[in-house]
Design brief:
heterodimer, A: Amidase signature (AS) enzymes, 11 strands, B: alpha+beta, Arc Repressor Mutant, subunit A, 3 domains, 15 helices, 14 strands
């Protein structure tokens, strides 16, 4: 079995570019593939960036430690957008992963390598992704697999290379909702090494196989209108019909300011990202060059030229947002709006158990079309995943199409209500 | 008003916690460079900070002792700047919501406003060599409290009084890592002109020297009709001069954001009350009480309360030993020995019991005050019994005959001085006494020696 796993992984990697590092030795236990921004002791961890091409962590992330204790082994570290900066995994310094259904199309991002590989592999069912603005939901929807983004604070971020600490979350990418529930049960829980975690972990498998009669959901009108492709809309609406048949109550609501959340999210995310990326300067770890005859600031400047274009863009924009004179207008204001939006969602959850919307507004685009997109257009494709990202709400993406290009349905629940997501997702799969 | 001087301070106080502010590394600069480090204080990718409760509590206790208002929400922030001693290229500090605000500390005839008190991490330590620099991250992540005052000081004397008072409070609260030393940034403006910041001065003497130098420098500039520029300077203790810093720090934009890895802290009243209870009687309160209760003079009381442990010693022995003897002993003899060794009483091996024994030996004339002091010096680092120390140092009491013999030989050796004395020079007698006492290593009582000498001189006559 083990040899077969390695052979298959090698083959998929060659065809689809899913790994930065593939561990080529036989190991005991259950294989799992891990996004390359999650630290693995002794295994190179690049976060998809050239600047970390030589970083070998001296410690395991808390999630990795927990998985090892439960008999998992890391089969490989998967390709991603550098530091999670992207929606299509095309900002990768280690090869661009391809869509499992159509190689001319993207597999989504930023956890693209994990989603593509889980979709293609016959042997490996478990993968770890990580989301800041939708990086679990997006590739899961584009690759036709299940992606679960847990409530902010349910899973420890210790050992995760930061993009935007206020939003970063580690979560399962799997073939089935059941596997996602199993994985979440293992990786969740309070961690003294991450002070933003809560003691809210449960055995999530107990939410499997339950009926959904009596559960109340709503869908936001605006998530099925402007900017959402017809085939996405049709697939998700027919999935909602199926859920209704199984007993879910569904009502329509309106949420006018949905797209306003995109700039709020990006302002905070980039402000944080630009401070997180300050540490990469060619000292202590990662890429280095010769310091001969250079003043330290010149050395730092020169080395930081090695960042990719999107990394540079976010450092510049993020630094601008934090500058005196702009900080209040952008950063401080965005933080206030974030709280307002969160309260708006909390109100919805007083009336409904769940909010349903499409995972992504589009089907996986072709590489050539992505190239033509401006950064702003690119960021707008996140408008359906950003509401849950901004507010720390948990969500699950479940594939709703058996044929053609994959489409996902996104279900969002109130904080720490992952159980409801699993119950509904599992009911839909049956 | 033209020469009005305004001085403000930023004092950085390293806390004496067991571990660093955001990780479990030892808070100690002892040992080899880069020994007390881990992924967190080295800022390795993936590592996250976690707040040290002990350090946080100590910062709140200090804020309360300095009459600060504790913020309802206490939040950490990131201050971004690139420097090789700063592993993350941002420092976790506080910006909008520090631990304490609007406190004060009184000095003579003046109340100094403390605008803010914040908790932050120290960077590593740079060591510059001829054509390269070394970094030691043992200090990286050490908890620092930064105390910022209003520009309320008018001269260096007030600053020094304030700092000494502050050190004394830190000692009483037992929160300060004295050996790491505090560092002070001083802001000075003369005659309403621009503010000049002198960074990173340690020690009271250099601080005083730097302030005095800078005031004169600015005054001279103003007299010449020149403008004082707003700039950052450093102080060279060797030359006693301030000089311009290479980095233009006043122009820097630190781009503060909240530290998203640390949740905000909201202290409830109960918790604040609990921490308040950990504040002992503070030095200035004790000063008043000792003056009233033991009728000490202000200067005596001041020396005794300087350190909590010496004040404790005074109060606990005052029931057993005559107060007048005791106060001299602690304010003069003990203080001298401690200052000489640059140690606090609690850092020595001197115990209450031994001090009591030593004083009673001295009082019963079994040893001279000089011998008592020599023994006390030994006691600093040695926990042998007093008896053992006395005999080891050869300080046991001299027999009268021994003193007589010494006097005889000193008189023989110093015929010139004897001659002088006979010719009416009183000073010569003092010299002869001194010679004898020196030979006894202080074991002989000077008055007795003098009597003996006079006796002998008479006899020779």
């Amino acid at each position: 079995m083990s040899l077969e796993i390695l052979r298959e992984a090698e083959e998929i990697n060659q065809g689809y570019g899913t790994f930065v590092t593939l561990i080529g030795t036989l190991q005991k236990g259950t294989p799992i593939v891990v996004k390359d921004n999650i630290c693995t002791q002794g295994i190179k961890t690049t976060a998809g960036s050239k600047i970390l091409s030589t970083y070998i962590p001296t410690f395991d992330a808390t999630v990795i430690k927990k998985l090892k204790e439960k008999g998992f082994f890391v089969l490989g570290k998967t390709t991603q957008d550098a530091f999670g900066f992207g929606s299509f995994s095309t900002n990768s310094a280690y090869g661009i992963p391809k869509n499992p259904v159509d190689k001319t199309r993207v597999c989504g991002g930023s956890s693209g390598g994990t989603a593509s590989f889980i979709s293609l592999s016959k042997n490996v069912n478990y993968g770890l992704g990580q989301s800041t603005g939708g990086s679990i939901t997006c590739p899961s929807a584009f690759c036709g697999v299940v992606g679960l983004t847990p409530t902010y604070g349910l899973v420890s971020r210790y050992g995760l290379i930061d993009y935007a600490n206020s939003f970063d979350r580690i979560g399962p990418i799997t073939k089935t909702v059941k596997q996602a529930a199993e994985l979440l049960t293992i990786i969740s829980g309070i961690d003294e090494k991450d002070q933003t975690t809560y003691d809210k972990s449960e055995d999530y498998t107990k939410y499997l196989g339950k009926g959904i009669k009596g559960m109340k959901a709503c869908y936001i009108k605006e998530t099925f209108s402007e900017g959402v492709e017809r085939e996405v809309r049709d697939s998700v609406l027919s999935a909602i019909t199926e859920l209704k048949k199984k007993g879910l109550q569904v009502e329509e609501i309106s949420f006018a300011d949905l797209k306003e959340m995109v700039p709020i999210y990006y302002i905070i995310a980039m402000a944080e990202a630009s401070t997180n990326l300050a540490k990469f300067c060619g000292m202590r770890y990662g890429l280095e060059s010769s310091p001969e005859n250079k003043y330290y600031s010149d050395y730092f400047k020169e080395l930081r030229m090695e960042f990719g274009e999107e990394e540079k863009r976010r450092i510049l924009v993020g630094t601008f947002i934090r500058m005196e004179g702009y900080r209040d207008a952008y950063y401080t204001r965005a933080l206030k709006l974030k709280n307002q939006v969160t309260n708006q969602f909390k109100k919805i959850f007083k009336m409904y158990d769940l909010i349903i919307m499409p995972s992504m507004p589009i089907v996986p685009p072709k590489f050539e079309d992505v190239k033509k997109m401006s950064p702003a257009q690119n960021y707008m494709t996140d408008f359906l995943t950003i509401p849950a990202a901004l507010t720390g709400l948990p969500s699950i993406s479940v594939p709703v199409r058996k044929k053609g290009l994959p489409v996902g349905i996104q279900i969002v629940a109130d904080h720490f209500n992952e159980g409801k997501l699993i119950t509904v997702g599992d009911a839909y799969e049956r | 008003m033209k020469d009005k001087i305004k001085i403000g301070l930023e004092i950085h106080v390293p806390l004496n916690t067991r571990t660093k502010l955001f990780c479990n590394c030892k808070n100690s600069e002892e040992g080899k460079p880069n020994q007390n480090v881990c992924e967190i204080c080295l800022g390795m990718p993936g590592a996250k900070p976690r707040l040290n409760k002990e350090a946080f509590d100590k910062s709140v206790i200090l804020a309360l002792a300095l009459n600060c208002k504790i913020n309802e929400k206490i939040i950490f922030s990131r201050k971004t700047y690139f420097y090789p001693d700063l592993p993350k290229n941002f420092q976790i500090t506080q910006y909008e919501n520090p631990v304490g605000i609007s406190g004060f500390l009184g000095i003579k005839n003046k109340k100094i406003t403390i605008t803010r008190l914040q908790l932050e991490e120290d960077p590593g330590r740079l060591q510059h060599k001829a054509d390269y620099s070394l970094v030691d991250y043992n200090r990286s992540g050490v908890p620092l409290v930064e105390i910022v005052t209003s520009p309320d000081f008018e001269n260096s004397e007030q600053v020094i009084e304030f700092i000494q008072k502050m050190i004394s409070i830190l000692d009483y609260l037992n929160i300060y890592n004295r050996h790491a030393g505090f560092r002070v940034d001083v802001n000075i403006s003369v005659g309403g002109g621009n503010r000049v910041e002198i960074k990173n001065i340690s020690g009271t003497k250099p601080i005083q020297k730097a302030i005095n130098f800078e005031i004169i420098r600015q005054k001279i500039k103003l007299k010449k009709g020149e403008k004082v520029e707003q700039q950052t300077m450093h102080f060279d203790n060797e030359t006693g001069k301030t000089f311009l810093s290479r980095k233009k720090e006043t122009e820097e934009d630190y781009g503060y954001i909240y530290e998203p890895d640390l949740s905000q802290i909201e202290l409830d009243k109960k918790e604040i009350e609990r921490l308040k209870k950990r504040i002992p009687e503070l030095p200035f309160q004790r000063l008043e009480r000792l003056i009233n209760e033991y009728s000490l003079t202000e200067s005596e009381a001041h020396v005794i309360i300087l350190e909590k442990s010496t004040a404790d010693l005074f109060e606990s022995l005052s029931k057993e030993i005559d107060k007048n003897i005791l106060k001299n002993w602690i304010a003069v003899t003990l203080r001298k020995v401690l200052n000489y060794n640059n140690l606090k009483l609690s850092e020595t091996k001197i115990t209450k019991e031994k001090v009591k024994e030593l004083i009673s030996l001295q009082e019963s004339k079994k040893i001279t005050p000089r011998v008592a002091e020599l023994v006390l010096r030994e006691m600093v680092s040695n926990d042998d019994s007093i008896e053992k120390i006395i005999s080891r140092l050869g300080l046991s009491k001299m027999e009268n005959r021994d003193v007589e013999n010494l006097v005889t030989s000193v008189l023989k050796e110093n015929k010139l001085a004897v001659e002088d004395y006979r010719n009416g020079k009183e000073k010569a007698l003092q010299f002869l006494v001194g010679q004898v006492v020196m030979k006894t290593k202080g074991r002989a009582n000077a008055i007795k020696v003098k009597e003996e000498i006079l006796e002998k001189l008479k006899k020779i006559n």
